[in-house]
């Protein structure tokens, strides 16, 4: 039988099986079929298009010349909204399914959509050690652009598709954040189009109130059109040390100890159970022992969290050298560990060698094709949350995550939180060491109920003066939300800049209690 006939017969059998089981049942219980046959190839086409476009734009030097023109077009749209009577709130015209957040942005259907086609690296200023970019530049795009020049940015949040705009208007973190803080703390200036159509630049010394209020505001103070981000010299490798630790108290002590060491370029923890974890520390270097180089980003390599788990199972420490860009995007191929729920056999060596080059599927395409049944299933039986708590509350926090969710692995990422104005800052007058606890997966707690369980988690996080990342589902009331976040500067600016008729309040935009 020829290959064409074999393929045709296979597709016919697949269609008959889908018809027998029902399309919805297949998409819910055998989603890997749809993902492998359709979303993985489509994701490759997406990547190829954006990479070719970025290359062409930079080669032709068209981005800097066209940036001002594109910003004027945004200003014109805002002024048109004003001339129409300012009857509806404004929001970006980017489709909700294109964002990395799993939340469905229903507000885009009723708000005035402002088209913002800004996705280019504008300027690399080696003298100032600053890169100026447009808001839709992704982390994968930016590191690919800077690394060959010998530069990187201090905080490179994990997933390739995370955008600069999302990381500023929301937030971003990486295992270098114990030195540099959150993504917003590595930015030196923002450019925004405000509700009156004016273009404003803000920095710590210029329109400083706006500069500190923009992070976490989720696009409710203005439209970000450019950002300037610090750069640091890039090195070829990260020398990473793996250390398994057992016992919750010892895990917390070791993680805290390593997080306080500035000589560690990177600190990260993966907690595999209440009593088991692997603590990783890394140092940037240009030299490597050839026999210990692990190009973990290669498509045929094991998923990173599975690779780390081997040290725990073998109960041994280890050291290896990972190429820097591979390290920065080490969790991308498996979307941390979310992909194991979508493609259960995705880490199988046969699948990795044959199809690993197509992984991961675009999160945006997963959202676009999930359907109402899958969305409700995920909402009730799946958790994607990042809670930021003081390091001194780490042990109590892990115990609470275990009791309320029982999701493993947990991701631990330390960060220094300076006492800057804005929505998120420590309770005291000085900078404080915090930790991001990331829970991604299906809760194993028998009595888990999404709304009740997450409200319990949110209550705990507020009690220790922590914060919830706003990309995820939030169940707080308005009073609880503003108890968690400091809204004083934010509300003052919304009043001063006439934002109340132009943009919804951040709570109304992101919290379930406001959207339902």
From TrEMBL:
The coenzyme or cofactor needed here is: FAD
Chemical reaction(s) catalysed:
lanosterol + NADPH + H(+) = 24,25-dihydrolanosterol + NADP(+); 5alpha-cholest-8-en-3beta-ol + NADP(+) = zymosterol + NADPH + H(+)
GO cellular-component term (any):
endoplasmic reticulum membrane
Could you list the residue ranges that cross the membrane? Answer: 32-50
Q: What is its main location?
A: endoplasmic reticulum
- InterPro entries from the entry? Diminuto-like, FAD-bd_PCMH, FAD-bd_PCMH-like_sf, FAD-bd_PCMH_sub2, Oxid_FAD_bind_N
- Supply one GO molecular-function term: Delta24-sterol reductase activity
Listed under GO biological process in this entry are: cholesterol metabolic process
Record keywords? Cholesterol metabolism, Endoplasmic reticulum, FAD, Flavoprotein, Golgi apparatus, Lipid biosynthesis, Lipid metabolism, Membrane, NADP, Oxidoreductase, Signal, Steroid metabolism, Sterol metabolism, Transmembrane, Transmembrane helix
Protein name (Swiss-Prot/TrEMBL) = Delta(24)-sterol reductase
The organism's lineage? Answer: Eukaryota, Metazoa, Chordata, Craniata, Vertebrata
